[in-house]
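Deliverable D5.2: sample structural annotation.
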Amino acid sequence: MANSAEAPKAGHRPPLCVDLDGTLIRTDILWESVIQLWRKPMVAARALFALLAGGKAGFKNTVAENTEVDPALLPYRDEVLEFIRAQRASGRDVVLATATHHLVARRIADHLGLFSRVFATEGTTNLSARAKRDVLAACYGERGFDYIGDHEKDMQIFSTAREALLVNPSPSLARRAAAVGTVSQVFRDERVTPATFARAVRMHQWPKNILVAIPLLTAHLVYSPEAWVLTGVAFFAFCCVASATYLVNDLLDLQSDRMHAQKRHRPLASGHLAIPAAMAWSMGLGMFGLAIAIAFLPRAFVGYLGVYVALTLAYSFDLKRRLLIDALSLAILYTLRILAGGAALEVPVSEWLLMFSLFMFLSLAFLKRGIELQSHKGGGKVSGRGYAPVDLETIRVIGISSGLMSVLVFAFYINSPVVSQLYRSPQILWLMCPLLIYWIARIWFLAARGEVHHDPVVFALLDYRSLLAGACGVAVILLAKIGPVGLHW
């Protein structure tokens, strides 16, 4: 449970005892470890049995022995870490006192090199709350140590410590800690805000779900208020469900996201959103989106939504690590949005639109992988992916070819018999081909120069030239629809 107890030498400043979860780091080690058990169902079963048989200490022991937490990747609180370093440099003893299992706690202490002693969960003792207070009081005496903590469970320790230092306390905790002891310092960090939540559920990705409106345009229902309402409901349901799956994806990708230059700033990877909160929001958003779909939309839409969820979860758990399969999965997920939009309006989606979408989104999926490879440092595979830097040229060839194939499909569509039934001047649609070629070639050029965001769809929605090309495309389609009958070049 701890190193052997020693009384502090006379005249020395009392040791500074530091909590780990939520204090030194923004996350909880036990939850971080539990997340890893999805790949180890037998270990998860043993851990559950240990919890029932031996309590939380036995559970932590099983989890710690079968998971790996990299101390270098943990989201440390910089202000607290700098304070500890300054105290250590001044000659003060700094002690890590945590309910985390001793195997993990000692790895973190060895990595930081700041702690002279480690108290942690070991054997049958879960070193939390009263147990931690008793150990610290027995070692250093009442008022013989200072303690940095962040949780209501630390109240008993605050009442025993000489001075309490609080990390991101709630108003209630700050008042109660001041009432039972001496609060000498408060460290404040970024708390969960609506902006944090918006980033966690990736609201900036919601515009992708506008794809459900494509059948409304291709079926020429733009003048139908009912069609717009159904499309709006479908869009909102998809946004809720997609956000739920994004949270699951980020939970599973904690370690690999922390090794990524941009993704390490995501709320979960950075520790600004707690893992239990993310789980709760994921379940709530998923159920809410599904309930909306069941209540207001046709069963076929609910079916497509279910397929989307199943494929997205399969992608998050496994498929994103598979060479080529990951890109195909992304392309299918985008295409499913279009199919779901058609199902919401109960209109068929043509094979031409499906093939065009599949090739176009396959190009964008490979573009996304190419961008990741360009920013990857090192010669090995990208963490959590099936690609290595040597694959970059092949990805570019396949991606650009897929994009141009979508233009070819569109050209064949213009010459199909169905077009003359839908458009007064179908020949005008040929103007779409140079627009598509321009946009596809341009985004690949910009990606090669490192000027594209890691998500090309989001880039396109924020890039004014892409938006201008899209507006021109809509104008071409409308002109073909209302233009003079029988127009020829």
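Annotation notes: Residues 192-349 form a domain with the Tetracycline Repressor; domain 2 fold (CATH 1.10.357.140). The beta strands are 16-18, 94-101, 117-121, 146-149, 163-167, 183-187.
The annotation will be released with the project's public dataset once the embargo ends.
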